Amino acid sequence: MSAETTGPEAIVQVAHLHKWFGLLHVLRDISLTVQPREVVVLIGRSGSGKSTFLRCLNFLEQPSAGTITVAGNRLHLEPGDRPARAHVAALRLCTGMVFQEFNLFPHMTALENVIEGLVTVKKLAKTAAVPIGERYLAKVGLLDKKDVHPIRLSGGQKQRVAIARALAMEPQVMLFDEPTSALDPELIGEVLEVMKQLAREGTTMLVVTHEMQFAREVADRVIYMEAGAIVEQGEPDVIFTRPADPRTRQFLERII
Amino acid sequence: MTAETAPAPSDPDLSMGLRLQARQRHERSLEFLRVGAVWLVLILALTLALTQLRIEPGYLIRRSEVVLKIVGGLWTTILVSLVSVSIAAGLALVGALGRLSANPIAQGISGFYVSVIRGTPLLIQIYIIYLGLPQIGLQLQAAGFRQLGQLFILDAITSGVLALSLNYGAYMTEIFRAGLQSIPHGQWEAAEAIGMTRWQILRRIILPQAIRIIIPDVGNQFIAMQKDSALVSVMGVWEITYLANRSARLDSKYMELFLVAAGLYWLLTIVSTFFQSRLEKRMATAYER
Asked: Is B218 among the domain residues?
């Protein structure tokens, strides 16, 4: 029934999304459409609502109102509504998330981290899950670390395992919430390299980041957010060289 | 024999590091020896003092069958504490989940349980279960509920285990709750993001991490319980304290036999502490660099 509202192309469709934290109106009427294979980078100062927006897409944060459609799964909320658990579960299955703080499971090895969702959520037999897990660990270049616990991995390696863990669930869209912000400068490159590779392979991605160089190189579209609203969006060349809105210009002048 | 066994002595950095390490190890073992010597002196002084006070250590050898009988009570003490701590851990897990639950009924019941049990003495709880409940049982039987009434009339060991389990379950509920809450929120989020349900997250992600954190506290509770189990002697359960008390009265050798009992509890604690630290080390393997 949601097919006609989704449109044939869009993989993510957000309409009139609002979020209140108590009396704070942190997301104000956000609408956004993401096409398959598109890489969208969200920029803006801290507190602008970009992370909250990303976290609303898979209901780690419950939106206060609005409509979210991911890969045909449509969830509409009026203010005060509580979403049905099954709907949330469906949304989470078609989104993969990478966190600033990695959030690897410390009691599991790298491989166990990657196959956890396959075994407990997708109910795959362990024998079937292991080759998939190994494939994704190889993809991020860490197959040799598969039996190592997170404490023995560097920050960059942890984040790459976290990416493999999200990819292993084969989501339709990947959400990156400041994936390099907790890393030492010399470890940022290896994570960005993995993300670039994913972009080249046509993974649909929404990325919140402060890495402007990455945004410039990889993004198909850059969105500037301020005070819980989308101020401006467009191709990176346009946004970075001749932004139309003075607020975008001011932000970029300060950061670059 | 080959080159890899000996570190290159030509490296001044390494040889200095090795020397410092050896020195540190030497100091540590010296300290250990000194503390051990103090213990030895204390024990000797205590023994000497006791023999001066017309306490008769020879009695323990002369009547070794009495001592052996008290030692036999060790098994009952171990059994009662092991069973009770296991049931208590189960209760504590359920209690902690109740306290953290959003459900008002679960929250209410677990909060009430913890408050009542922690608010009353263990000895009173033992009396209520062993002597109080049968009153209800008899009334029920008089009213015609024979089977149901029988459930309220418990033998001494069952009463003791029940009281210890309920009592320690309440204290351990708080330990479990704190343990579950100490796991960073990001762990929940990461598991939710890959689609796991609340129950799956709890079982596969949160509990395994929380258990490692609470092992020292639970071990501490187990060690405390071994001594609190002495209270079940008031019901005539043949454990260490009851046997020591009974035998002591026969020959008026209170100091001698209660010291034996005390020594047995002490030994039990030392052994438990040893196993606890081994368990802690084993649980820590995933967290070692």
From this structure: yes
Report yes or no on B34 lying in a domain: no
Q: What is the pLDDT of residue B47?
A: 83
> Cα dist. A41→A28, A35, A176, A224, A236 in Å?
19, 13, 9, 9, 9
Helix (H) or strand (E) holding A229: strand A229-234
Domain that holds residue B157: 58-288
Q: Residues 179 to 218 of A: which have CB under 8 A from any B CB?
A: none
Q: What is the pLDDT of residue B254?
A: 87
B1 in reach of chain A (CB within 8 A):
no
Q: What are phi and psi of A64, to 5 degrees?
A: -80, -30
Strands lying side by side in the sheet with A65-70: A24-34, A12-21, A65-70, A73-77
Q: What is the pLDDT of residue B8?
A: 53
User: Given this model, what pLDDT does residue A1 score?
Assistant: 36
Contact assignment for B195 to A89 by CB distance below 8 Å: yes
Share the mean pLDDT of chain B. 91
Distance of residue A185 Cα from the nearest chain B Cα, in angstroms: 22
Residues of A in contact with B187 (CB under 8 A): 103, 105
Give how far A247 is from chain B: nearest CA, Å. Answer: 33
pTM given for the model: 0.85
Size of interface A-B (CB pairs under 8 A): 70
CB–CB contact A92 B194 (8 Å): yes
Asked if the Cβ–Cβ distance from B194 to A96 is below 8 Å, we say yes
Min Cα–Cα distance to chain B from A173, Å = 12
Inform me whether the C-beta atom of residue A105 falls under 8 Å from chain B C-beta atoms.
yes
Residue B24 lies in a domain: no
The Cα angle at residue B231 between residues B227 and B237, in degrees rounded to 5? 110
* pLDDT beneath 70: ranges in chain A: 1-8
What CATH number corresponds to the domain at position B254?
Answer: 1.10.3720.10
With residue A126 as reference, give the H or E element that holds it: helix A126-139
Neighbour count for residue A132 (Cβ, 10 Å): 18
Q: Any idea what DSSP says for residue A160?
A: H
* pLDDT value for B9: 58
Say yes or no for a CB contact (<8 Å) between B288 and A151.
yes
Taking alpha carbons only, the member of A39, A13, A10 closest to residue A198 is A39
A120 → closest Cβ in B200, B209, B289? B200
Q: What is the pLDDT of residue B52?
A: 81
Give phi and psi for A174, each to the nearest 5. -105, 135
| Any A CB within 8 A of B207 CB | no
| Cβ(A44)–Cβ(A248) below 8 Å | no
Number of domains in chain B: 1
Cα gap B241→B155, rounded to integer Å: 18
Tell whether B135 is covered by a domain.
yes
Q: Which residues of B164-194 are buried (b: 16+ CB within 10 A; e: fewer)?
A: bbbbbbbbbbbbbbebbeebeeebbbbbbbb
Which parts of chain B register pLDDT below 50? 1-4
- Our CA-based measurement puts residue A103 at a distance from the nearest CA of chain B, in whole angstroms, of 6
